[in-house]
């Protein structure tokens, strides 16, 4: 396979365990960064969450300044512009470490991600010199203004308008944005508007610009301490030198930034899920019913095991993708005015992995915090217990950075379009058809089941293409199920490769990882069978579905294992540690 085609290639064949990055591959510097973030969150943020969520005056900004002093705001900013210019692994570690901090995590993400990365990647040297140094220290707060009242997921239908002034020195902005994070304290906004009503473009707008105003703070279900407001532009004058990138190419800025934003959100979700497992394991050990800790009850064991298993798979996905992004970014010459744009284009190579990771990990987070509340029982519904806040804060993650529904459509759509440009999906499909002409051997181990997941995706995609032709991309229900097949294949493989890679390093740890990977794989393959069968039924009505369903059965022949016993072993490890361990 040509090197040009990297993103999505996990579906085309086996992956070498040594080629992926895992959390066990952290360098000493990575571990130091993780420890720094953990101390900052544990000592500075979590103890004041109640004050943060009540929006105590100046607290959020003060914490952001403290984070800046520790270098936690400048990870993605070049050193020459005041940042610490860390690798993508470090940036992911920071995002994960802050994931349990709810409102602060969201404010931080608005500052270091979508609020400043457009300048990092697409800004001129002058724009970077002016705006990035104060962002890296927290002196200035950044916000990203894309969403409008009438355009949520359909960003290109924005109504905010920009018109060049008669003297050609300013653009004059009019319009409104909605649900803008950090709006109440922002000193700079990345704003998207249509020049002359049709050329979708990006601008850097100073927060103190005449005519710029914000609405009242939104009263939210969760992340209550983060500022979320509408932003209004009434003849706001923006200097022409604050046009970001090129006229009419704002979508390039927006969509490239969202790719990395989705990866960071998945890391945030992972951090939240880990804390939920920790809180639940500790509570289950301490809470006694019928004179025994509830951690000894079979159904609680199963909950803890599945929470840990899903979190392990999520962690495997997050750092595998971080490794892919890091490798491609490290291969670039990023100095000079074009370096940032090259980085953004490189990140786009892994748009599929960023989208599927965001969907998978945010839904793992949702499952884990929900089960965490259930383990806590009535106490999980009481705000005195941290799991209650985690549950509320987690809900937004499936909406942020493109809803999970939008991201599900991105996965197969991008793969199909890349296949038209050379990604050898069709060759993989043809190879599969040759194998299906004879009986596919029974899948005898986890590696075989992982391959079965990939085969099922290819088979379902080919069947859907044959059935719907050029209309496939209009059938969202089918696209969503195809996405689920790809998502689970990536997660299953990531979990299994990580376990295999660790086997030669720490035997005891590898046994636990292997147990969690196996539990995840055997549970997920059942979900894959269901989604694939629904796709095939949508493609072939009545008796015509018999043949493709028979082929699906041929692909999914494997011997089941005792998942109940396996989960008991996993739960024992989690209960013994009183927290998430991998």
Unreliable parts: none
Q: Percentage of helical residues?
A: 55-70%
Radius of gyration: 24 Å
What amount of the residues lies in strands? 5-15%
SSE order: HHHHHHHEEEEEEEEHEEHHHHHHHHHHH
Give a short account of the largest sheet. 8 strands, mixed
SS-based class: alpha+beta
* N→C terminal distance: 33 Å
Shape: globular
Number of helices: 19
Number of strand elements: 10
CATH homologous superfamily assignment of the domain at 9-140: Acyl-CoA dehydrogenase/oxidase, N-terminal domain
Q: What CATH architecture label of the domain at 9-140 applies?
A: Orthogonal Bundle
Mean model confidence by pLDDT: 94
In CATH, the topology of the domain at 9-140 is named: Butyryl-Coa Dehydrogenase, subunit A, domain 1
Main CATH class of the domain at 9-140? Mainly Alpha
Write the layout of secondary structure elements.
Elements: H1 28-45, H2 49-53, H3 59-69, H4 88-98, H5 103-114, H6 117-122, H7 125-137, E1 142-145, E2 161-164, E3 170-181, E4 188-195, E5 199-206, E6 212-214, E7 228-239, E8 243-244, H8 250-286, E9 288-289, E10 292-293, H9 298-330, H10 339-348, H11 351-376, H12 386-394, H13 404-420, H14 425-436, H15 446-468, H16 476-502, H17 507-539, H18 546-555, H19 563-577
Parallel strand pairs: 1-4, 2-4
Antiparallel strand pairs: 2-3, 3-7, 4-5, 5-8, 6-7, 9-10
Could you characterize what this model shows?
This protein is of the alpha+beta class. Among the domains are: 9-140, Butyryl-Coa Dehydrogenase, subunit A, domain 1; 144-244, Butyryl-CoA Dehydrogenase, subunit A, domain 2. Helices cover 56% and strands 10% of the residues. It is built from 19 helices and 10 strands. The strands form 2 sheets. Strands 1, 2, 3, 4, 5, 6, 7 and 8 form an 8-stranded mixed sheet that branches. A two-stranded antiparallel ribbon has the order 9-10. The longest helix has 37 residues, at 250-286. The two termini are 33 Å apart. 51% of the residues are buried.
